[in-house]
Amino acid sequence: MTALAWFLVAFAALLGLIIGSFLNVVIYRVPAGIPLTRPSQCPHCDAPVRPWQNVPVLSWLLLRGKCANCTSPISVRYPLVELATGGAFAGVVWMLLGNDAFRLASFAQRPEGGALAFALIAIAFLYLAAISIALTMIDLDTRRLPNAIVLPSYVVLAVLFTGACLAGAPWEALLRAAVGGAALFAFYWVLRFAKPGGMGGGDVKLAGVLGMALGWVGWGTLIVGAFAAFLVGGVIGIGMMLAHRATRKTAIPFGPFMVLGAWIGIVAGESIARWYTGLLGVS
Predict the structure, then answer these.
(1) 8 A C-beta contact, residue 169 and residue 104
(2) CA gap 11, 4 in Å, rounded
(3) Would you kindly state where each structural domain of the chain is located, as residue ranges?
(4) Distance CA 208, CA 202 (A)
(5) Contact 161, 215 (CB under 8 A)
(6) Three-class SS of residue 41?
(7) Is 186 helix (H, G, I), strand (E, B) or coil?
(8) DSSP string computed for 110-122
(9) Where are the alpha helices (DSSP H) in the chain?
(10) 174-223 pLDDT, tens per residue?
(11) How far apart (Å, rounded) are the C-alpha atoms in residues 62 and 204?
């Protein structure tokens, strides 16, 4: 990779740490209905969080995981979410710079539009990474996928993908994104209709968002990403039952499996699809 590429990856990691700090606020406040604009404060003593106490990861380490005012413990999950977001952002940029499928999806039909198209696609998938982390944590905590996060994501991705096409990315990618979003939404809706209680309404709505991102990259990505969610969910579910931590009737949030499956598809879906069709002798 070039020096510029390394700079972009490092910048994405730093940006991710900052966004991760904001995601901690989103994860706590959105399910509780607390406005995001309210100043940050300790949940135990209501002491305001000073700017120097809000530096990602570093503040938690300097404060030794405790509130500066009342010394109540601050969950280690806060810096972990920040680190996870930083790592995810760096990984997305790394992938965008080196993944052949993304090169094809963001290839500029007009040379002068390549940089802008690529930037808009990068923003789209960085946004997807951010909401993936937030929705995973919220679903694990509350077994909910809030409309306040899921529904605006349709608009965000549609605007960014359309802008990328106007800047030179192929319009076929936008068509795939639209078909992928509609197809995965419909598939999950049918599953929910066929077995009430098996899928939540939030899962159905999230499926459309993930389908848009998967479809943008490619048809193989869409199929692998959709299938991987059920494969990962099945493997983890069986593992939990073998460990006596769940039974067949235990309700397990499916949103995290959907997110993980989608990212498996985004990162390796085209390669997996080519490998599988090669085994079948399909060119």
Answers:
(1) no
(2) 10
(3) 146-283
(4) 10
(5) no
(6) strand
(7) helix
(8) SGGGHHHHHHHHH
(9) 3-32, 58-62, 77-98, 100-105, 114-142, 147-166, 171-194, 201-217, 219-242, 255-279
(10) 999 999 999 999 999 999 998 877 788 999 999 999 999 999 999 999 99
(11) 42
Quote the CA–CA distance of 20 and 32 in Å, as a whole number: 19
- Under DSSP, the state recorded for 167 is T
16-to-85, 91, 93, 181, 195 alpha-carbon distances in Å: 5, 10, 11, 26, 38
What type of residue is 121?
I
Asked if 143 and 30 touch (Cβ cutoff 8 Å), the reply is: no
pLDDT in tens, 231-282: 999 899 888 888 878 777 777 899 999 999 999 999 988 888 888 777 776 6
Please tell me the distance from the alpha carbon of residue 31 to that of residue 85, in angstroms, as a whole number. Answer: 20
What's the pTM value of the predicted model, to 2 decimals? 0.92
Task: Give the relative orientation of helices 255-279 and 219-242 as an angle to the nearest 10 degrees.
Answer: 120
For 62, the token pair is 């300097």
Which residues lie closer than 8 Å to 15 by C-beta, 6 or more apart? 89, 126
48: buried, middle or exposed (CB in 10 Å: 19+, 13-18, 0-12)?
Answer: exposed
